[in-house]
Amino acid sequence: MLTILGKPTAKNGTFCDGVSRRSFLKIGGMALGGISLPGVMRAEAESQTGSNHKAIINIYLPGGPSHIDLWDPKPDAPKEIRGEFAPIKTNVPGVEICELFPRMAQMMDKFVPIRTISDADGRHDAYQCMTGRTFGSRQPPGGWPAAGAFVSKLQGPVNSAVPAHVALMYKTGNRTWGEPGTGGFLGVPYAPFNLVGRKARSSPDNMILQGITLERLRDRVKLQQAFDSFRRDADTTGLMESMDVYSQQAMNILTTSKLADALDLSKEDPEILARYGESSEKFQRDGAPPMIENFCMARRLVEAGARFVSLNYSRWDWHGPDGMNFPKSREEFPRLDQGLSALVTDLHERGLDKDVSVVVWGEFGRTPKINKNNSRDHWPRVSCAMLAGGGMQAGQVIGRTNRKGEYAEERPVKFQEVFATLYQNVGLDLNGTRIFDTAGTPQYLVDQGIEPIHELI
Asked: Mind telling me which Pfam families this protein's record contains (predicted)?
């Protein structure tokens, strides 16, 4: 892992363990793969097929947020179901969401709540939100690729300075909340290039390069010394057979300003950045930090050339004996409301709303009935998601749960249907695309019979 420090802050001008998020960016090995930057370049050389720059931003809420308290309020249900929050009207007639989302309510015509995701496998991890597949499903040799790996493989990079598949996924105390997926049977070159991290005790081989600022990224000698220190796994497939060529190209990623500029939030218009609200660098127990500025970072990465950006945001598992469901909702919901509305507003103002798709979701929903701790437990039977952009028919709700929010009464939706919609938004051919796994078996982007959500197309 290569740690790159940004500009010193105005407050202290120094780098230390408490360095601000704007000045602390990690650029390093592929998540779960340990591949170096030359591997990224190898992937580019193998798949120069991209044309139109369409993209996906995948925002994962670790821990399973409450569907009822977010975007599927049940005001007519008994008190032990409806909870402490009232619904508010939106600018779409007949659509109501939680009162703690006033900004989104005023622009609901730009969003699509999905209220009936009904095939969560119930595991506390990011796997289904990254791949669409259930963890226990039949695995091809090498495993299922993350969705961004398919996009990277089939469409290639937009330019040589920014990997097509990137992540802003923090390593979390609960390990599975910080995993952005892998390249699966497509191979390590298509795994997400993770741009943030956490110095985990379990990863002593992470290389930390101190003192390299954004201004010094063009110092090729320093950078070469850094690359010389990276751990490189043995490659029996010939991936690194042109190491000198790809090392040179890899250096271009860091010595070209495009990626560095995208990661440097000090270059963002302060008024635009302020829309997103204030982030916190504090990790939420075993979850991720509530870094709302990463929503802006994701948009900047897309503008710089990324095709698929995944990020984990805060921690949403609040059902313990401390009874924090409603107090934590009052803390987290307004921040998510501000950040998500800012992101979608940015996309529309920049003319990206037809090209960039956004999905926000967690691994499952929450029990309709409030438990003895005044919280909600795990509820895989139904959960929710929020979509925006991608040229989709926004301003409508997909699905309806029953009066108590227990199950899908109309239009159950599968995770893979959401991914099928996202793939179609970026121009992938669901029916005509098949890729052979390492055993020579043809595989598809989604299971056969799965189609995009037709109401959105």
From this structure: DUF1501 (PF07394)
| Whole-angstrom distance, CA of residue 400 vs CA of residue 57 | 25
CA angle 455, 340, 67 (to 5 degrees): 60
pTM of the model: 0.83
159 beta partners: 162
CA distances from residue 365 to 101, 173, 187, 201, 416 in whole angstroms, order as listed = 18, 21, 32, 31, 17
| Residue 30 in this model has a pLDDT that exceeds 50 | no
Q: Which residues contact 20 (CB under 8 A, 6 or more apart)?
A: 9, 281
Number of domains composing the chain: 1
In this structure, the chain runs to a length of: 457
Q: Confirm whether 199 is domain-assigned.
A: yes
Query: What is the rounded CA–CA span in Å between residue 273 and residue 397?
Result: 29
The CA distance from 168 to 292, in Å, is 11
Give the start-end residues of each E strand in 99-176.
111-117, 165-168
**Do the domain assignments include residue 23?**
no
Two tokens, residue 256: 């070209």
Mean pLDDT of 411-440: 96
What rounded mean pLDDT belongs to the chain?
Answer: 83
On whether the CB atoms of residues 207 and 2 are closer than 8 A, the answer is yes
Exposed / middle / buried, residue 349 (Cβ in 10 Å: 0-12, 13-18, 19+): exposed
Q: Residue 435: enclosing H or E segment and its boundaries?
A: strand 434-436
Beta strands in 207-315 (DSSP E): 308-312
352-410: pLDDT as tens digits? 999 999 999 999 999 999 999 999 999 999 999 999 999 999 999 999 999 999 999 99
Phi, psi of 159 (to 5 degrees): -150, 170
Is 135 part of a structural domain of the chain?
yes
The answer to whether residue 229 is domain-embedded is no
Q: What is the pLDDT of residue 383?
A: 98
Specify the amino acid at residue 136: G
Give the phi and the psi of residue 198 in degrees, each rounded to 5.
Answer: -145, 135
126: domain range?
56-206+257-444
Q: Give residue 321's pLDDT band: very low, low, confident or very high (50, 70, 90).
A: confident
What CATH number is associated with residue 286?
A: 3.40.720.10
Looking at residue 70, its amino acid is L
Q: Is the pLDDT of residue 456 over 90?
A: yes
Residue 288 is encoded by which pair of tokens?
């991720």
